[in-house]
Amino acid sequence: MESFLQSAAWGEVQQAYGREVKQVHYNQATVLAIKYALPLKQWYWFIPYGPLVDGLDDGAVFVRYEPDTVPQHDRRVADVHPSKTLITPLTLPEQMLSSMKQKCRYNIHIAEKKKLKIIDQLSAKVFFEVLVKTSARQKIKLHPKRYYDTIIETLKKYDMVKVYGVAYQQQIIAVALVVYHQGVATYVHGGSNHDYRSLMAPYLLHWQIMQDARQAGLNSYDWFGLSDRWPGVTRFKLGFGGDEVTRPGTFEHALRPLWYTGYRMMKTLWIS
To answer: Where are the alpha helices (H) located in 32-180, listed in sequence order?
Structure first.
């Protein structure tokens, strides 16, 4: 099943954000590649959740890609998109509840007793405000606001996105950006206000998203990432139950070996 990251609409998001994209034919399908700039007027191509393909040797230093199978020779690098995730089947509500961990069900019931209101058409402005608070608390680097705005504005044209929020006493205390593609609802970005953590708003939020997605005919909910780097977030996601899925990860294929070696050396210096 094709990820939304390989959809034509996602290519349009990247173009609207100012990046060059290329559609490459591969095995009776089309693979999306996105061009990224490097110093010294160099560049590379990135294929999100897709295989290495020919047709990108246009002077690029390398191709970064996220294949379904482990390549034999290319370099494994840090994940761009999650290599491990949780997929929760969207079945009958009682079945989904029974598949959750007891603590998760308990927290949903707590949240249901609070005066919380779920909104599924939250503005991009308010969504980003909550992201900023979350990133400051968790020390997560955000994209520029224009990037989230571009995702929302572009995918809305294709009914591929919803921006959810939880309102409490006229404040938005939890948010989620969800993308819909080929029967899968994917939780791409989100956050919450830590000051209201006792209300368990994120539990109610995602429970509502899952129910809405099922009613809309979708089959599964992709939590888009499990990581030991974020044990609290990962524990929260795992509470909803589902199947853990692991991909090979992110790899780089050198097209200009000398330039690529120089790039790797410079990147090591930047990180250190």
So the answer is: 93-99, 102-112, 124-138, 145-156
Greatest distance between any 2 Cα atoms in the chain: 62
Q: Which pair of tokens denotes residue 180?
A: 């819909």
Q: Which two tokens stand for residue 26?
A: 């591969």
Count helices and strands in the chain by DSSP H and E runs: 8, 13
Phi and psi torsions of 200, nearest 5°: 60, 35
The H-or-E segment that residue 179 falls in is: strand 171-181
- 218, 185 in Cβ contact below 8 A? yes
Buried b (16+ CB within 10 A) or exposed e, 127-144: bbbbbebbeeeeeeeeee
Q: Would the pTM count as exceeding 0.85?
A: yes
On whether both 187 and 252 belong to a single domain, the answer is no
Per-residue pLDDT of 183-240, as tens digits, reads 999 999 999 999 999 999 999 999 999 999 999 999 999 999 999 888 999 999 999 9
Q: Are residues 75 and 88 in the same domain?
A: no
3-class DSSP state of 21: strand
Domain assignment of residue 252, given as a range? 4-80+248-271
Whether residues 184 and 264 share a domain: the answer is no
The angle that helices 145-156 and 8-16 make with each other, rounded to 10 degrees, is 140
The CATH number for 157's domain is 3.40.630.30
